[in-house]
Amino acid sequence: MLAEDEFITSCLTVRRFLRRFEDRQSFENLRLPGRPAEKVTPQLLDFIDAEMDKNDELTAPNPRRKINEKFQVDFSERKVKRLRSKPGWVKTRTKYCQLIREAKKGKL
Fold first, then answer.
1. 52: domain range?
2. Are 60 and 77 within 8 A, CB to CB?
């Protein structure tokens, strides 16, 4: 049957496929191992973006507390920092500090 449709496959491949189907009763692949993905919705990202628009100097504990109150999910501060960067918010430090000598402070 496969040869009629010009599929090139081995008997071993067909045997493995049939055995896997018999075990699972489904054509779907198994779930990947590891931690399950956390529920990050577009509404959550929009909320973080709106909060950062209101005050762009927020530190991670403040949005974390607001996210917990509104969405009932308890993300770590590190997770909130990563989520904050998804809409484009980037933490930067000043490269150059404008120093004013004491003598010139009185003249300003």
1. 42-85
2. yes
Q: Which residue has the tokens 């989520």?
A: 83
User: How far is residue 51's CA from residue 84's CA, in Å, rounded to a whole number?
Assistant: 10
For residue 36, how many other CB atoms are within 10 A of its CB? 7
The Cα 21–Cα 24 span in angstroms is: 5
Q: What six digits make up the tokens of 41? A: 């919705």
Whether residue 72 lies inside any domain: the answer is yes
pTM of this prediction exceeds 0.90: no
Domain count, the chain: 1
Average pLDDT over residues 54-77: 86
Residue 2 placed within a domain: no
